């Protein structure tokens, strides 16, 4: 997307290129509902106030006055909600335009939204009704993609979540490795579930910073790639971020979304690509998986980590069963005779 005009023109062009945005961000139906409710409450308030002097007793007048006051508050709330929704959407488009202007001025390519399913990262298999938005990418000297992944969680209380990520292209395919940040802090919007028998402990105090998962029997391969130099860069450049190496990609995942209108985000992505990405690529340039018939690929056993999601699904059922057995036992269900 080039040639940034006014925010209105930018929004029109973006919606034309990505029709789903218009479908999701339509506020007219919501405004009609809120406006109708606001009108009903306003009518109730007017009726109560205009007929206040017709009340027969002081108690009825007080009751009618408080009802009218509550109706006024309700009308103000619904009408203010319309104004707030319009303001939030306008602000979102101003930030999108600012992000596009920044990216283009720096020589990056900008996408207001795209489907992430073509990318192999574990993050992009998380949640439902998901998309990447406000993203920028650069082709030289190494491919970099930076943006925000927006998705809905299974838990209704969590709702829609958003996290920032940086994707860095590597020079060859490598075994699947996931480094989960071990630092305490803000909870992750998503938590990948890998089976515990794939956990690999590394030397020094690296385990204080990251928990490394790699496929079983690929421990030596992981140590070939994750050398002390790479470990030091991970600690220095990406503390608190999850790091995933999968196929010929490295993904660095934040705990919260990036402000793509902030130039420091692009600087951070380029620095990661030059330091961590570049060092990892050089270190793994001669890597070959002896288990694979094709030198350009990793064997199936090492290409993907095994997930432990079935344990997470089974655990509630096991706990429920044990609780039921305990209650039954306490009530003598299993008593003989």
TrEMBL record:
The keyword Transmembrane helix applies. Keywords: Membrane, Transmembrane, Transmembrane helix. The chain crosses the membrane at residues 27-49, 69-90, 310-330. This is DUF3137 domain-containing protein. It comes from Leucobacter muris.
């Amino acid at each position: 997307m080039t040639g940034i005009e006014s925010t209105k023109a930018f929004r029109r062009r973006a919606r034309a290129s990505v029709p789903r945005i218009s479908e999701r961000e339509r506020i007219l139906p919501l405004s009609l509902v809120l406006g109708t409710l606001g009108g009903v409450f306003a009518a109730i308030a007017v009726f109560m106030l205009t007929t206040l002097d017709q009340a027969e007793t002081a108690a009825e007048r007080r009751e009618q006055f408080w009802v009218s006051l509550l109706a006024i508050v309700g009308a103000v709330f619904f009408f203010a909600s319309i104004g707030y929704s319009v303001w939030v959407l306008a602000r979102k488009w101003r930030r999108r335009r600012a992000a596009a202007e920044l990216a283009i001025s720096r020589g990056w390519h900008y996408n207001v939204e795209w489907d992430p399913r073509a990318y192999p990262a574990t993050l992009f298999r998380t949640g439902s009704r998901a998309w990447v938005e406000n993203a920028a990418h650069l082709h030289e000297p190494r491919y970099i993609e930076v943006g925000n992944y927006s998705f809905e969680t299974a838990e209704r209380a969590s709702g829609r979540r958003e996290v920032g990520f940086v994707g860095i292209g590597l020079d060859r395919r490598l075994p699947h490795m996931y480094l989960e940040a071990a630092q305490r802090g803000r909870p992750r919007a998503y938590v990948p579930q890998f089976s515990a028998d794939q956990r690999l402990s590394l030397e020094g105090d690296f385990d204080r910073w990251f928990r490394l998962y790699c496929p079983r029997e690929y421990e030596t391969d992981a140590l070939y790639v994750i050398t002390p130099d790479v470990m030091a860069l991970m600690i220095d450049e990406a503390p608190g971020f999850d790091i995933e190496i999968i196929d010929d990609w490295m993904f660095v995942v934040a705990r919260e979304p990036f402000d793509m209108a902030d130039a420091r985000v692009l600087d951070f992505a380029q620095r990661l690509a030059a330091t961590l990405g570049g060092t990892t690529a050089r270190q793994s340039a001669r890597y070959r998986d002896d288990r694979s018939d094709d030198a350009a690929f990793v064997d199936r056993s090492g290409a993907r980590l095994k997930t432990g999601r079935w344990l997470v699904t089974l655990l509630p059922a096991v706990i429920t069963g044990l609780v039921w057995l305990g209650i039954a036992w306490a009530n003598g269900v299993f008593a003989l005779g």
